[in-house]
Structure formats: C-alpha cells, structure tokens
Design goal:
Layout (H helix, E strand, L loop, with lengths): L2 H33 L1 H5 L14 E4 L2 E4 L1 H6 L17 E8 L6 E8 L4 E2 L2 E2 L1 H11 L16
Helix pairs in contact: 1-4
Protein name: Shufflon protein
Organism: Salmonella enterica subsp. enterica serovar Agona
C-alpha cells in the first residue's frame, strides 16, 4: 500500500468518525428538545440544579446549551468529552420560532474550528462527514450566518 493510499484511508476514517460524532450529538439534541420543549418554548434558563439539570442560557428567541447539558440529561454518555475527532468543540443553539402555543424549536450544532489544512478548507472531508451524519447535516462558509432549507 502506498503512503498516499494510507493517508487517504486515514482521512476517510477520520471524516466518518467526525460524522458519527455529529450524528450522536444531533440525536441527543433532538431528544433534549423533546424532553425540555416546555422550558424551551418559554425560553427559561436553567442553572443546572433541581429537576432541570441544565445548564441552559436563553436570550431573545435563542437558548444555548452545551454537551454537558446533554450528559446531565442522560442523552450522551458521561465519557463524552465535547470535542470531535478533528479536535473541534461544539456550539449548540436552540431557536424558538412560530407563534404561541405552537412554537417550533430548531436546533443548530456547529463546530468551533473549520476543517482546514494549511489555508484550504477540506470540503472533501466535510462532505464525507456530512454523508455519515445524515440528512440533517450541512456546512456553511460563514462563522456568523447559516442558511438552510
């Protein structure tokens, strides 16, 4: 096997692992929205005590949680470290839309570090990770704006 083939195989495995991790955290966020819909629809903060373990911080129409919130709810294993195989942490935003009483809670999970090598974004590996993560995954070229359909 050539060195380049080994490197490609390693990169494919890494991309697949990152996709699996994103899918895992995405499924946990979906579960969290189901469990805490009442608190999210009223944009209630949670300090991490009592029956609502949090932490959850809400401002405007957006609530932010982190991976520890999902661990506290039992939706991720306690061994989850909040950093993917590409050494990027996650930011999880939950946005309330619609009108009362039928609010819709949309979740957005982003990684905090772009997947790049040198000055070039590795769209090939992002695409492979998205393939593994599934239909709800995507990418954006902006760190401040996300668009989707």
């Amino acid at each position: 096997m050539k060195f380049q083939d080994m490197r490609n195989n390693q990169e494919n495995i890494l991309a697949s692992t990152v996709g699996q991790q994103m899918k895992q955290i995405g499924e946990a966020v979906n579960g969290y929205i189901n469990i805490r819909y009442d608190k999210l629809s009223t944009l209630s903060n949670a300090a991490g005590t009592g029956t609502d373990p949090g932490p959850r911080t809400c401002s405007g129409s957006v609530c932010e949680i982190n991976y520890q919130t999902l661990i506290n709810e039992g939706l991720l294993p306690s061994t989850f470290i909040g950093v993917n195989a590409n050494k990027s942490s996650y930011k999880i935003l939950l946005r309330r839309g619609g009108i009362s009483p039928n609010y819709v809670i949309n979740g957005l999970i982003t990684t905090t570090v772009p997947w790049s090598e040198g000055n070039k974004i590795r769209y090939d590996l992002l695409g492979k990770a998205m393939q593994t993560a599934g239909i709800d995954s995507g990418m954006t070229s902006s760190s401040s704006t996300a668009s989707g359909y």
